Amino acid sequence: MPETRRSPVLVGRASQLADLRELILDQSIRLLTVTGGAGAGKSRLAATALRIAESRLISVDLAETTDGEQAWQTILDALGGPAEPHISLRGPDAVTARIGAEPMILLADNCDLVARDLASGLPAVLARCPELTVVATSRHALDLYQEVLYLVPPLSIASDGSEASPAAQLLSNCVETRFRDGAIAADRSQLEQIAAELDGVPVGLELAATAVGRLGAERTLERIRSGQQLPPSPFVDIPARHRSIRACVEWGLNDLDEMGLFVLLHVAASSVLTDLEEVLLLSGERGDPIAGKLAELVDRSLLGHSVAENGHYTYAISGFTRSFCRQLLYADRALAERVRFRRAEGLRLLAREITRLLAEPDGRAEALRLVGRWLPDIVATVRYLIDHDAYRDAIELLSELEDVWIERGLLADAEAIVATLLAAVDSGAHPPTLMAAGRELLGRWALRSGRFQDAKRLLAPVVSARNTDTRRTDPALVHRAGRALAQVHHETGRPQRARALLARFPSAAAPPAEQPVAALVEAVIGLGDGPLDDETSSALRDHAAALPRRRDRLTVLNTLGRTLLRARAPHRALEVFHLVLRTPEPVMSPLEMVAALEGCARAYDAAGDGYSEQTHRLSAAAHWIRATCSPSRLAGHSADPAVSTIGAVLDIDEAIAYALSIPLLSRADLGSPLLSRLTKRQLETALLVAEGMTNRMIANRLGIAEWTVVNHLRQVMTKLDCPSRLHVALVIERETQQPA
């Protein structure tokens, strides 16, 4: 591909150039340091701005100097002039004697490697040379009191749509001036993507231009993102440090220690801005030294530094420096593995903190902030652990963030990850406990989301493993699985099996922290599905409502509500479901809210045709919310024909408000379990007996013969097991009384 001569130009620098010239002309500024990240264009911008200088300009490139003595000698050589009168002077003293009172601007370019040595002598030079102004270019400050810093940012990668961004313009200019048909190799959108990946750093854009001309824009973009090296610059008059991204960033890092480099690589691996508080959390016991390394990286212009709205320090890495880190990790697989392992370790600490915050009443806002920022990294960490056979760690991390997966509608995705994990465990030589742990986790998730048959299928093998080989199972895990399976049997109408399992896995054997909840669930399951007295159900309801942890509280209440439904006490069940629906911030617990809405629908369905509209609307809303809040695999299938006709009428807040607006049920609204044994005419007869009517009065009221009333009453007394009319009246009064 034929090449042409390149035309170096400053693109998108009008504002910075004007600012810098204004600072140079300000006579009160004696020491101006032009700073910025590697390849930002500090030298070119400073040299262009200094062309307006009226004083004598001396420009010194200190890039090849490695110590203070060599740096001062290079400056002295650039000053020129006779050396005889000052032959005995060296270093800053010799420079001071050479300059004297002459008006002069000294450009100390690329002084990164000798910044500390220059800083030790410059104050004396400036004090004894009153007409001297020093302009330095360096990635980090000289840390002198009289120093004025000017930060050179990368070129903007923002575009207004009508024309390319300044960064893309520079990239396009470089391609077009270097390769005659370069414009054919890339369209504007591709150039904008390349510019964004390199964060608008000019040196990176110039190197990318060479790659675009030789490889095309698409392959260039792939190389940048994967960490592969770009073709080096072909220009022999460009310093070696600017001929590749890696060489550009590595220059000046000769004294960066291993921890500093490790912290830089850690930040580069993140997809979000790095918050100091979060870095300390991710770092565990290594927090303090790492915080110091972050400050050092900011000083070296390898990281950006700002203060967020919450007052925390935040650190950002440029795309150019991130590309350097990618290349470093691509070339050194062992280093990459160490970084990823340490990062996974830190993100597991973060996940535990999120779990802790979610369990605290005042911690939700902070937990959600962390989830919003770090969720992609956490998911990537789970996959990393699986890829590296750290299955137990992956299962623990998935389990700890259960509420996060549910609230974000990612439970099906998390389940798919566990399924992948189980397939890997099943095909390899791994302990059976890993398979059991994965099944137990999936079983608990299925139980919580109301998929009881799935839960039974997953949990049963874990529980049965205890009988086959106790040495190959985790007793605590089997105990949790056994208790969960007991809940499944209870929910599916097998109370005897549920109680049998609880006898094998009693709440007293659960871990101390789990015992209060386990005991309460045990009490609910122990009720079975028979008739319940109001005092017992009320006591269980109050104990469940007092549980401190939100998830436990709502889960037990819903279990109690469904138990009351099976015990034919829908009016009591409705009270329990209303407690669930009144929980603040319902979006935190979508599965529990949906379960409560479904429970309300079942309660009104038990009240008969008079509540058909409420039943259908709640059932449709619950089905829609379940399908909306969770991926389709969790949505299930509704048997309610109203779902297809009513459709998505209510969101979660509207559905809860609607459910709470419907009056509670009374016994009079219900087909009492006892009274349901009677035919319609028998029930009418019994109700009139309870009002104190005689047989003749009942016959006149119903328009039937008196002997027919006698026959109906005999059937009523038989079905209700009542020896007299008085007993019939008492049963009717009890079965139709209003709830307390």
Q: What does this protein structure show overall?
A:
It is built from 37 helices and 8 strands. With 740 residues, the protein is mainly α. The strands form 2 sheets. The protein has a 5-stranded parallel sheet with strand order 2-3-4-1-5, with helices on both faces. Strand 7 (304-307) and strand 8 form a beta hairpin. Residues 1-7, 467-471 and 631-648 have low confidence and may be disordered.
Supply database-style keywords.
5% strand; elongated; mainly alpha; 740 residues; 3-stranded antiparallel β-sheet; 5-stranded parallel β-sheet; disordered N terminus
Quick overview:
This protein is mainly alpha-helical and 740 residues long.
Task: Report the strand count.
Answer: 8
Choose one word for the global shape. Answer: elongated
Mind summarizing the main beta sheet?
A: 5 strands, parallel
Computed Rg: 39 Å
Structural class: mainly alpha
Strand arrangement in the largest pleated sheet = 2-3-4-1-5
Fraction in beta strands: 5-15%
N-to-C span: 91 Å
Mean pLDDT: 82
Q: Number of helix segments?
A: 37
Helix content: 55-70%
List unreliable stretches of 5+ residues.
1-7, 467-471, 631-648
How does the SSE layout of this entry go?
Blueprint: H1 14-25, E1 31-35, H2 42-49, E2 56-61, H3 68-79, H4 91-99, E3 104-109, H5 115-128, E4 132-138, E5 147-151, H6 166-178, H7 182-185, H8 188-197, H9 202-215, H10 217-226, H11 245-250, H12 258-268, E6 274-275, H13 276-283, H14 287-299, E7 304-307, E8 313-316, H15 319-331, H16 333-358, H17 364-387, H18 391-400, H19 402-407, H20 411-427, H21 432-448, H22 452-468, H23 475-491, H24 495-504, H25 515-526, H26 534-545, H27 550-566, H28 570-581, H29 590-606, H30 612-629, H31 632-635, H32 642-646, H33 652-661, H34 680-690, H35 695-702, H36 706-719, H37 725-735
Parallel strand pairs: 1-4, 1-5, 2-3, 3-4
Antiparallel strand pairs: 6-8, 7-8
Helix pairs in contact: 1-2, 3-4, 3-5, 4-5, 6-8, 6-9, 8-10, 9-10, 12-14, 13-14, 13-16, 15-16, 16-17, 17-18, 18-21, 20-21, 21-22, 21-23, 22-23, 23-24, 25-27, 26-27, 27-28, 27-29, 28-29, 29-30, 29-33, 30-33, 34-36, 34-37, 35-36
